[in-house]
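Why show two proteins at once? Because comparison is the fastest way to build intuition. When a single record is shown, students tend to memorize it. When two are placed side by side, the eye starts asking what differs. So, the first record is below.
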Amino acid sequence: MYEATVSAPVNIACIKYWGKRDTKLILPTNSSLSVTLDQDHLRSTTTSRVDESFEKGDRLWLNGKEETVKEDGRLGVCIKELRNWRKIEEDKNSSLPKLSQWPLRIASYNNFPTAAGLASSASGLAALVASLAKLYELPQSPSELSLIARQGSGSACRSLFGGYVAWREGSKEDGSDSLAEQVASREDWPEMRALICVVSDLKKGTSSTSGMQRTVETSTLLKERLNIVPGRMEEISKTIKSKDFENFAKITMKDSNSFHSVCLDTSPPIFYLNDVSKSIIQVIEELNRSSGEIIAAYTFDAGPNAVIYSLEKNIGKVLGVINKFFPQAEESKDPFKTKSEDLPESFNQNVVRQGGWEKGSVKSLIHTRVGDGPRTLGKEESLLNEQGVPKTLA
């Protein structure tokens, strides 16, 4: 049996990717930078198997539901490119089994809501690419594999690394220099924590793909953003290497606000944040002011869910304000058993509507930390049964 099971992490951008200069190759209009989150809490797992006896045609299941693999679709393009790389190895060495010629069976599972602004496509495509690379025993580096992952989902290229990761926009028309590389490892700054406030786990109204294309076509603010981002990329890379949280937080919050500004400047405007999202921003800004220093940074991807970065020593203060003003529908399990701390004495509670938000305004909290890149899992963690069908369907 030729099979590989790999898990890949979620990444949350501090400098956002929004806009393509080439929609087919998924070449971005600007570079971006993200923090990889711990797979113990958020991950996609993919099992890939080839077998000469499988019926013709590739088959893929996502969370138990079969998806069509179109040759010219994003999944099909990734599979085709990785198959080609395997064929190159087979042509070099005639003793290798002809795996590139055999049908594939692929099962993928996310342990978090899909399409709700939690970067499910990024971890899913990264897991697919990493799994096939392992199955095909490809010699390419993670940066080289990121060229393929990028064509499936732009931000997927960053999920092929742990720690702090940059996706370089590149300048070549063929996209050969638009790849991901690690800026710093998890071990370089392990104190970083992330608190994800799940405001909604529903599928977002405007997909990232259609939203960013509309922005490129209609936003005048986007041009100004593209002039600013290169400086931010350089600056935030320095703050990560020097573990300067205050500047890291300032840049992260500015870039999130800049990203959502260009969404509003799009015609028709795109609204990813809701009233709860905006209230979280106000609470974090007031927490920083009343603490006398910047101890937390909010950022929002294409959805209403907040990701709040803080250092381990301050995360109890962040939990304190979130739990007070945004009571969850059900108690969330904290893997770190962190105690909520009281508000700073000078905290102005008038920034939140009287009495705070109703229970369930934040559905759940996910407390996690900076994590590692893709992991190869054992046979016992395979998602496929002996017939090549997901175990959940057997």
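Second record. Ask yourself what differs from the first in the token line.
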Amino acid sequence: MGSLPLHEQHQKNHSLSSSSTTTTPIDQSKLLTLFKTQQKYLNHFFQNLDLQQTLSFTQTLLNCKGTIFFTGVGKSGFVAQKISQTLVSLGIKSGFLSPTDALHGDIGILGNQDLLVMFSKSGNSEELLRLVPCARAKGAFLISITSVENNGLMGLCDLNVHLPLERELCPFDLAPVTSTAIQMVFGDTVAIGLMSARNLSKHEYAANHPAGRIGKTLIFKVKDVMKKKEDLPVCKEGDLIMDQLVELTSKGCGCLLVIDDEHRLVGTFTDGDLRRTLKASGEGIFKLTVGEMSNKNPRTIGPDAMAVEAMQKMESPPSPVQFLPVIDYDGVLIGIVTLHVLVSVGL
């Protein structure tokens, strides 16, 4: 395919640019008005929501013996997917069922103990109306969540929830921006209601998010992240400082852990202590033992403490530290946890 001659290409580009929509700078007062108007529309939703319908809907989800499936078309479909994912994160069996794919085989996943929740602003989406008889034939319990009164889905479902919508924020009252906002608020609030009713603990929630920071905060213990055994930079009280320089620098902890013959922690000696001792003693450092210059009252932590607690302890007054020796109930040294390791695992 040949390219247009240069003068024709210029005329074409000029035509496209001249026909494109012109833009104007964002007006701060108009933007503020939009936010306040959206707030007004959301307040209309909160003030007019039928709480009895909402209670019946939430209780139905709580009593579900099977899987709670969500479906929707377009923007409502995205909301349905998000609400489903929220429930899954709470340990509730849920999934998203594409209305189009359902009619091409995916409806086989529905059973007679399942719920099918259909999000739709109008309640008249052709894809959902076609899905209803097929889902009912599978024995699923059908629920519609709509904003337009007297719509097609309402007469076909077992339970209906009306989400009051004053109008869309869009100046043409067309773009689904307010309707999807109230769908999201409604679905997520119901999800937290289910979370409360199921008495989900913080640790149970964290177990569903092992890779996220909240999961790591509530799951990882000190014993899961500490260095131990041959990785520990240990020495005895009587060891000369200069004889332990390799141990001090090679284990990547920035310190020496001073122990007695029973492997109990006596104190710590850091690379900072080395610099201060060298500055104060000069050549006298060759005759000093680690025990003489060590900190005899270091911060410590137990192996069963939460890793996040170790980080908090490191950062606590009077001054932050970079490591914590890990000792058992008898004061025996069993490990060391460093700030570097805590940060590297995502805490």
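One difference worth noting in the second protein: The two ends are 57 Å apart (CA to CA).
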